[in-house]
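User: Structure tokens for both sequences below?

Assistant:
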Amino acid sequence: MADAYDFLLTLDLRDDLSEDEVAELRWHLGLGPQPERLCIITEFPEVVLDDNSNPVLDDQGEWRVENAPYPVLAQRGPAWRIGGATVSELARRESPRPGWALTTRQALHPDDFDNVDQLLSWLATHADYDHVDFDGSPRRGGFGQFVGYERFYEDDVITKLLVIKDGEIAREG
């Protein structure tokens, strides 16, 4: 048995991202190199393991923890356990208003959820989640906007919907 979740996220982002934020987001999606300075997720605490995969202890007998940054949505290729492919894309959008279009599908392990949740929180603060009428004028949706899902790899149905609600990306279901 594995702990794998099918994770899909697709949303538009406003045109208010700095160059540093775009560079880090591209890195998190596997589309560019790691920036020198991280500004979206700055802490990636990880317990240091010895050659036998045992935690290394510090002078006080506590587990030694180091910052070990990694891109959280960068998988590409055949999706382990969930079928299909893992992908991520960030594309410039000019219409109906400037911004960014983001889509990612990943096979996530529960150990990854903390960092993914940090990224989701940041994305929610930059989401362009106004609904747009055919004439290009914005109209605000009242019940939250569907932006993705999570599904345990053995489940036949989607178990959690990802929606933007009250300025946050929430899991419902």
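Moving on to the next sequence.
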Amino acid sequence: MMVNSTELKASLIVSVYKNTDFLKAVLDSLAYQTENNFEIIISEDGDSEVMKNFVDNYPFKHQFQHLSREDKGWQKNSALNEAIRSAKADWLVFIDGDCVLHPRFMEFHLELADPKSILAGKRIKLDPETSQLLLSGEITVAGMNRFLKKNFNKVKKKGAQFVEEGFFIDPKGILGFLVRKRSMRQLKGCNMSFHKKAIYDINGFDEDYIRPAVGEDIDLLWRFQGLGYRIKSVRNLAVQYHLHHKESWTDQEENMRLMESNIAQKKYVCENGLNKS
């Protein structure tokens, strides 16, 4: 059943580029969510016909928007700013199109929502074999806690990373104290949320970054903190399972030079963002 726009509590912004198999797994995981008062914004940094056909034919149970752009290389920050401008809800949740969600992911991003806080989580990076089991449906998101507990050492040996981040811990359960101990000092663009006012206060993602990584999250954090926002952890509450794929990190020197220059000038509000100077 479609959620009425007057009831929307959040806009879930999903960054994608071409991979519809991964996106299907992510969207399928939304059917298990315990909190469903949100819209989905598929933020495509490109204009793939395959992606368009997939979205047009996917059986969405939530309101959704599909935003695309001419494929001119990496323009993720510009695409994200467009998604923010299009969002119908005040609370914005950001994920990547290769991160499958635990059933209580949206619940905790909303339960802990606070206009002066930036919510920050992490993700387990799955090994190839476990990724395939999740993609094929042999393991469901509801069964991942049990699977990881049983196969903890095995998945690590097969290449999984940050396995401890893959466990959901009920904050009201016997191990709830562990959640309260697990703080965050960083911001991950694949698992974060904040109020729309917060991102408008820093004028959004800085589009001067034309390479991935730093401008998607690290740059945001120091700007948020410069304006008095605080980071709050959702580790082991808003849990994500990152599907395995070959990663192509680019050189970060240019990104770091830009950020360090902005930090030196205390440019908490970027010029080339949601609004252009």
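User: Anything stand out in the second?

Assistant: The chain is about 35% helix and 15% strand.
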